[in-house]
Specification:
Elements (H helix, E strand, L loop, with lengths): L12 H9 L4 H17 L4 E6 L4 E6 L7 E8 L2 E6 L20 E5 L8 H12 L13 E6 L12
Length: about 160
């Protein structure tokens, strides 16, 4: 039986991510890019784990290359962008801004990247960093790692009714 060897991709992760984001309406694409810039600046040593899945486009920010070491993520679909906390059910949330009722994940909806400057959101982000099983590296720059790309995806743009 002959094995098929996948050709090595010469497209950089940065270009792939840019291509994923161009699938969205301009307003949502701008929001993804702006929120990503804020989080990259605030957490430069975090790895970006990128998933272009069926339901959502996700950029997870983690301490390692493992999904389970993800601290928080941007998740976008045609309706908007959210900030998800992988272990959000364990985060202190005295202002009760986290949404969701599952046993693990919690999220907030991002009206814009400016939401990330809200002190309550900053506290949640720092809480996620503080509870990390593996700490963020003290120096260096995190990598962008494309984890998966789904062949089938929901539309990334609003469908007119």
């Amino acid at each position: 039986m002959k094995k098929t060897v996948k050709p090595f991709s010469t497209v950089s992760p940065a270009k792939k991510v840019a291509g994923f984001i161009t699938k969205f309406d301009a307003n949502i694409a701008r929001q993804i890019n702006a929120a990503r810039r804020v989080l990259r600046k605030r957490f430069p040593t975090a790895n970006e784990l990128v998933y272009d899945n069926y339901n959502f486009f996700v950029i997870g920010f983690g301490t390692t290359e493992r999904t389970s070491d993800c601290l928080f993520s941007l998740a976008a679909n045609a309706k908007g962008v959210g900030l998800h906390f992988y272990w959000g059910a364990k985060l202190p949330d005295p202002h009760r801004i986290l949404l969701g009722s599952g046993s693990q994940n919690r999220f907030i909806r991002l009206e814009s990247a400016a939401t990330l400057s809200n002190q309550q959101v900053k506290d949640l982000l720092m809480g996620a960093v503080a509870q990390a099983r593996v700490p963020l590296p003290a120096s260096g720059r995190g990598r962008t790692i494309i984890k998966s790309i789904s062949a089938k995806q929901r539309p990334r743009r609003e469908v007119a009714k």
